[in-house]
From TrEMBL:
Residues 1-70 form the HTH merR-type domain. This is MerR family transcriptional regulator. GO terms for molecular function: DNA binding; DNA-binding transcription factor activity. Signal peptide: none annotated. CDD domains: HTH_MerR-like_sg5. SMART domains: HTH_MERR. Keywords: DNA-binding, Repressor, Transcription, Transcription regulation. It holds the Pfam family MerR_1.
Length: 209
């Protein structure tokens, strides 16, 4: 297909497609002349993936580039998903050293009890978790942190569902892309379902219209 057809099929404007090509986010098409190229269904799929990562996942183009490089590289699906999670985590907010130390201890104890790998402080997911726990303590909402075991159990259940979806696939490319989608879109889906569930429980427990 031509550039115009690629744009129409993917829903991405021609100018944006050209930008992605220049930045290396989209692989070049097959040259048919000095000024023309032919594109395939794989290009459509890549554009839709970029669109999902930026518009639904909220990733910056720099993060998308890091994720796509991992997908196109020789890393295992497990390591590729690690890159995805790090990019999704973003830059953690600053918290006081005292609260961070307290939160780090709580989190490390939890992970050891569950047999999870304890990551170093610079690990973005860990750093964001520490910041969230520290902020809860700072706000006097330590009751939230007292339910960490239950949250961890729920997280493990959701993670098992995510991986089961991916494990059924046979192609490495499909496994990586499905894992990526499960991580990025799964976060949004679960957050939305959680909010809807909170609305129902709040109505029952707290009352109100």
């Amino acid at each position: 297909m031509r550039m115009a057809e690629l744009s129409a099929e993917s829903g991405v404007p021609v100018a944006t497609v050209k930008y992605y090509l220049r930045e290396g986010l989209l692989p070049p098409g097959e040259r048919t002349s000095p000024n023309q190229a032919r594109y395939s269904a794989a290009h459509v799929q890549r554009l839709r993936l970029i669109k999902a990562l930026t518009e639904v996942g909220g990733l910056s183009l720099a993060s998308v580039g890091a994720v796509l490089s991992a997908i196109d590289g020789d890393e295992t699906p497990h390591r590729t998903m690690g890159v995805v999670q790090q990019e999704l985590a973003g830059t953690p907010p600053k918290v006081s050293d005292e609260d961070a130390e307290w939160a780090s201890g709580r989190l490390a104890d939890l992970m050891r009890r569950h047999g999870w790998k304890v990551h170093p402080p610079e690990h973005r997911t860990m750093a964001n978790l520490v910041a969230a726990l520290a902020t809860a303590r700072e706000l006097g909402q330590e009751t939230l942190t007292e339910r960490l075991e239950e949250y961890a159990d729920l997280a493990m259940h959701v993670a098992e569902l995510d991986v089961q979806v991916v494990a059924r696939l046979t192609s490495i490319d499909n496994i990586i892309e499905a894992g990526l989608v499960a991580t990025v879109l799964g976060d949004r889906i679960f957050a939305g379902l959680r909010h809807l569930a909170q609305e129902q429980v709040s109505r029952k427990v707290l009352g109100g219209g």
